[in-house]
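Handout, page 2. Input:
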Amino acid sequence: MQETKTTASETVMVNQYVNGVLDPGLEMLGPVKSGGHIVAHTAPGCWGPMITPCIRGGHEVTKPVYVEGAEPGDAIVIRIKSIEVTSLATSSGNDSPVEGRFLGDPFIAVKCPGCGTLYPETVIKGTGSEAIRCANCDADVTPFVFTNGYTMFMGEKGDVGVTLNREAAEMIAQNGRAYMKTPDASVQNPIVTFAPHDLVGTIARMRPFLGQLGTTPSRPIPDSHNAGDFGSFLIDAPHEYVSTQEELDTHRTDGHMDISRVRAGSVLICPVKVPGGGVYLGDMHAMQGDGEIAGHTADVAGIVHLEVELVKGLNNAGPILLPNVEDLPYTAKPFTAEERLAAQKIADKWNVPQLEESLPVSFVGTGPTLNAATDNGLERAAALFDVTVPEIMNRATITGSIEIGRHPGVVTVTFLAPESYLKKAQLYDLVKAQYR
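Output:
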C-alpha cells in the first residue's frame, strides 16, 4: 500500500494507464492537494481494450491519483471542469464473444486458441475482424466480434458524428491510432481496425462524458467490473480475479457507471476505501442515450480537467452525483420563486406550518439487475440520511426519478432532499453551490 508523500501538488498531469486492473497495492500518481486539479489524457474504452488481450479488465483507465489526506470513510468530491474529445474517428457496436478464446470472461481472461497463452501479446495484420493476431503463434485471437457495428467520424466543432460507408471505414482502419488519437502510452489495438460499416449516414449529436470516474477499490478488481452489474461476473469465476458477492459488495467503489450525466459541469462525490482514494478515469464516450442499450457506444480519447476536494468522514457507500440542472428530471429541479409562492398559498390555506427547503441529489446504485441496482441506490440514500427506504421511495416518486445509467444494472435515484438532511450529512454546502 502506498504511503503518504510529503509534498502534494496543486495539479497532477496524467498520461499513464493501468493494465485493466485497479489494484490498491500498486503505487499511485501524485499526491494532489485537496482543492487541486487533475488533468488527464484518457484512452478510449471498451472496444479497443476488448480486442487487446494483454489488458485484463475490458478498459484502459488512467493510473490512480493519490489525494492528500484521504482515508477510508472519507469522500472525494470531483468537479468535472471540462471534457474535450480528441479522437477524429471511432468504431463501436454490439458485441458477440468468440467461444474458445477466453477463460470464463472475455473481458478479462483472454486465451489464445492456437498456443494457449493467457493474456497474449498481439500484432495487427491488415484490417477487418481477423486482423488481431497472437504475437507468439499468429492465431486469430480477438475474443469479440461485432454483430452490428459502425465507424463514425467526428465533426470539427465537436457537435455531431456521422457513420461512414465501407470505403471510408477501411481507409480509417489502415491508420487507426492516428484517427483515434490514441495516447502514446496506451497499448490498446484501435477498434477502427475492424472497419465495421453496418450503419451508414447516421447522424448522432455529441455530448461527451466519462463512463469511468471514481476511486480505487480496496482489492484488485478489473476496471470494467468495478460495479455491481459487471462485477457479478467475478463471482465464482474460473480466473484469478474471482470474488464472492460479499467481497464484491465490500470492495467495489462503482467507478464504472456509464451515466451520461457525468459530464462537464457535474459533480461526483466518491467513497474512499483505500488511503489516498486513488482517483482514476477513462472510457470517455462521445454520446450515449440512457441505458447504453447496445452494450457499447462511441469510445473516444480526450482531455479531462477535474478539481478534487476532500470531505472527511462522509461514509457514503457509493457515488453521489450532482448533475447539471438541465440534466435533472423535471420533478427534481429546484423550485422557482413562482412555484414556492403557489405552494405557500396551499400551506396557508391548510395550516401547514412550514414548507420544506430542498435541493436535488442523485445516488448511484448498481447490481446484477436494474431492480437490484434500484434497491442498492435507495438503500444508500436511506443509510446516509438515516431514514427509511420507503421514505426515499416516496421522495424519488414525487420529487425525482429512477434513471438508467447502464443496462443491466446501473441507476441513479434522484430526488429533492430536505436541506436539514443535507446539512446533517455534510452535503449542504456542496449541493447548494451546485444549484443556487
